[in-house]
Amino acid sequence: MSFGQGNAVITVSTSTYQQMVNSGSMRYLENQKLKDSIATYNDLVNNLINYNDRILNTEDNNFIDVGKLIDVHDFFRSDKIRSGEDYQPKMDSFTLNDEQRRYLISYFKIFSVQSTTNHISVK
User: Distance between CA 36 and CA 3 in Å, rounded?
Assistant: First the structure.
């Protein structure tokens, strides 16, 4: 894997289910539990797609602002983050106010969740 932010973008589609609903083909399934299960699965997939879009958009939209606060040239070593090593990026010390500190903590919590989730998904 290359060094860097490493967001995994996985294409997921519910078009087959939508086609079955729109064409009326669901009526051919007689098992109501199966219909309910498929509908629930479809809803879960859509929730996952929406969640992932929100996370990726949050990371992308805030990366420039993060770069204004800290030097990130050596920070996003996702191979080191996922390995569980005590990785300390090379950077000069800097001073933050409370708002900037909260902003960075929130951003990196989101990044950490996404990075960990990507690693689990790839396995």
Answer: 43
Residue 28 DSSP class: G
> One-letter amino acid identity for 116?
T
Verdict on whether the full-model pTM lies above 0.70: no
* Mean pLDDT, the chain cut into blocks of 10 residues (123 residues total): 48 86 93 94 88 80 78 62 66 82 85 68 49
Termini Cα distance of the chain = 13
* One-letter amino acid of 17: Y
Sequence-distant (6+) residues with CB within 8 A of 3 are 76, 77, 78, 79
- For the chain, the structural domain boundaries read 15-122
